[in-house]
Amino acid sequence: MRSSLNRRGFMSAGAALAAGVAAPALSGCGVMGGDDSDPDTLVLHSQLGGTAPGAATFRAVLDTFRKENPGLKVKVLINGDELGQVYETARLARKEADVVMVSLYDKTVEWTELGATVPVGGYLDQWGLRERILPKALTEWTDEKNRLRALPYIASNWPVAFNRDVMRKAGVDEIPRSGDELIAAAKKLRAKGTAPVTIGGNDWTGQKLLAQIIQSFVTAEQTKSLYRTGDFGALSGVRDGVQYFVELRDAGVFTDKAQGLTTDSMTTQFNTGAAAMESAMSSALGKVPDNVARHTDVGGFPLPTGAVHPKPTILRTFTVNGFWISPNGTKKIETVEKFVRFMYRKDVVARFVTEGARDMAVKTETLSDGFPLVAKAQQLGDSVSQVVLPDLYVPPSAVQPMIQATSTAFTPGTSANRIISALQGAYRNA
User: What b/e sequence results for 214-224 when a residue is b if at least 16 CB atoms lie within 10 Å of its CB, and e otherwise?
Assistant: First the structure.
């Protein structure tokens, strides 16, 4: 497995910086301020900005931290999906932030291996945080060499949302639990001009749903191996899962032109009642308007006959956001410790749940009562089966090609063989 932050990447990016060539990802973000060596200045680099779920809560708790620590100065750098590239460029110049708040996905999977961030297992125990974090979260954030990459913080449930009101108006009285029931419901919904299942077939939401459906006939251990190697043609269960996906697609289960839609398209269709169902992580469920949420239930994705799972499936992950410590951060570790310990306080964690509609990788008894669909997802328990989120196993170089392959899969008329070939092709340079 190779990453964009390998030795060649360090050399080429370093040469560009030495030559005075500005990296496009740095434009307007001010990340080069991350080299502040003052031990009383903490530099944070986070994805929790703008209108991102939990961003307002993050700003509020930072204000509290500043008031409680008047001698400390806190700088915050915000980036969205491009954070990984921005951080890597700053790290090459040794001007990276002290603490990075980002998901374990794509580029970040290899940061610890490549020295872009430091293992944090020692700090976990020194700071007395092991008992605060869910054991499953620690497992997901630990690499194959038993190094804890970052301190887990935000998690997510990823169920299917069902708009009962829209479904009833189309004559669908029960939430579908099988493939046959889903296809029958789709026919009734389309007859009323309503999209059945909306999905961003041209981005990560479609990639996750495709992976979920493929796992109908594949066990968890088989799935982990599958996404590590990209050998989608080796298991009969994979072929059966892809064929189930094709059956659903060709029966009109997915919204029209799904292959070109994005997450924003998906949430708009569901939140306006134009679609009856969506596969949505809890951060999206928190944004469903009240007039839709009051008629919405959450559950698992319907399974075909002969599936290896006993109940409709959902995805869960503890890797949405964590606290990564950079080499710069180790130079002022006492300041970093103050911030991290503050963020794991029970009252701070509870604010992310109640105000930010976030699921947490931290132990808490608080529920997102102000966000009913998020709370419902938190309480699904054993009424659903959980399948594997592929993020930890897909080589970084295959992440974007996998999304391109997903768009191919959602394109009407694409055969199961062609889908499998496209998925395998995504690993060509991995």
Answer: bbbbbbeebbe
Q: Do domains 7-157+317-376 and 158-315+380-425 have the same CATH topology?
A: yes
* Confidence (pTM): 0.86
CB 185 within 8 Å of CB 196: yes
Q: What is the pLDDT along the chain (430 residues), one digit of tens a residue?
A: 334 444 444 433 433 333 333 333 333 344 444 556 788 899 999 999 988 889 999 999 999 999 999 999 999 999 988 999 999 999 999 999 999 999 999 889 999 999 999 999 999 999 999 999 999 999 999 999 999 999 999 999 999 999 999 999 999 999 999 999 999 999 999 999 999 999 999 999 999 999 999 999 999 999 999 999 999 999 999 999 999 999 999 999 999 999 999 999 999 999 999 999 999 998 899 999 999 999 999 999 999 999 999 999 999 999 999 999 999 999 999 999 999 999 999 999 999 999 999 999 999 999 888 999 999 998 898 899 999 999 989 998 999 999 999 999 999 999 999 999 999 999 987 6
Query: What are phi and psi for residue 341, nearest 5 degrees?
Result: -60, -35
The tokens for 19 are 């030559």
**Cβ neighbours, 10 Å, residue 110:** 19
- In the CATH scheme, what architecture does the domain 158-315+380-425 have? 3-Layer(aba) Sandwich (3.40)
Number of H helices, E strands in the chain: 20, 11
d(C-alpha 105, C-alpha 392), whole Å: 7
